[in-house]
């Protein structure tokens, strides 16, 4: 894929190499810096601050066993493992049948789950705070419900008490005798008396009354010599 020079040949003949330019540049830089020769050297380089490019299954294995490691970013690319056979080899159909059978009875899924998905026994579980659950906040909702219920009971009692007092007051007002407003005090009495006096004087002027002699005689039959008594008005 690469020529003897450091320049990547995909700059000239892209159609011959189905690999993009950025992958070639990354590989050229990795070749300049060098590759690790063992697992211990890889972990040492990572602890020293280096960034390691490796296959996804191997990176998952290291992360599962070394709790300080972390994967970041997306995958650079995806390529499948393959086995090369001669054309029209009788082993081709045999390999295909075996792979299909392993996929059909979930053998590959079982092996993948055994060695990759559940291989985290060396690392402790991270405590993730998921917030308050219903059991922790249930008391708050119960308190709010009790407060609402007590408020409704107090409101109903106040309404009933108001109607009872209002009805009692209306009954008391209906049983009381009516009260007349006080009459204003005026000075019309002397004028009335004066008017009556003037009317009497006018009447006496128009209809003069003659004086009559009224004689009241009292007789005492026991004394024949008793004289009569005369009174004049």
Automatic annotation (TrEMBL):
Start and end residues of each stretch annotated as Disordered: 173-207
Keywords: Membrane, Transmembrane, Transmembrane helix
Transmembrane segments: 140-166
Domain of life of the organism encoding this protein: Eukaryota
Keyword Transmembrane tagged: yes
Name under which the protein is recorded: Ionotropic glutamate receptor C-terminal domain-containing protein
Protein source organism: Schistosoma margrebowiei
């Amino acid at each position: 894929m690469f020529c003897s020079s450091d320049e990547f040949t995909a700059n000239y003949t892209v159609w011959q190499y189905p690999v993009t330019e950025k992958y070639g540049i990354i590989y050229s830089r990795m070749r300049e810096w060098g590759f690790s020769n063992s697992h211990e050297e890889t972990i040492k380089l990572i602890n020293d601050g280096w960034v390691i490019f490796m296959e996804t299954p191997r990176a998952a294995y290291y992360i599962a066993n070394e709790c300080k490691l972390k994967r970041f970013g997306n995958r650079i690319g995806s390529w499948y493992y393959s086995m090369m056979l001669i054309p029209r080899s009788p082993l081709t159909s045999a390999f295909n049948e075996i792979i299909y059978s392993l996929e059909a009875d979930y053998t590959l899924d079982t092996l993948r789950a055994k060695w990759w998905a559940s291989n985290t026994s060396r690392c402790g579980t991270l405590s993730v705070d998921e917030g308050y659950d219903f059991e922790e906040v249930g008391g708050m909702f119960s308190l709010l419900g009790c407060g609402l219920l007590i408020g409704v009971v107090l409101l109903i009692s106040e309404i009933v008490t108001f109607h009872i007092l209002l009805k009692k007051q209306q009954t008391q007002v209906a049983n009381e005798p009516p009260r007349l407003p006080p009459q204003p005090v005026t000075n019309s009495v002397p004028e009335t008396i004066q008017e009556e006096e003037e009317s009497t004087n006018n009447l006496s002027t128009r209809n003069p009354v003659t004086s009559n002699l009224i004689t009241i005689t009292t007789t005492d039959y026991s004394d024949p010599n008793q004289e009569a008594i005369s009174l004049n008005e």
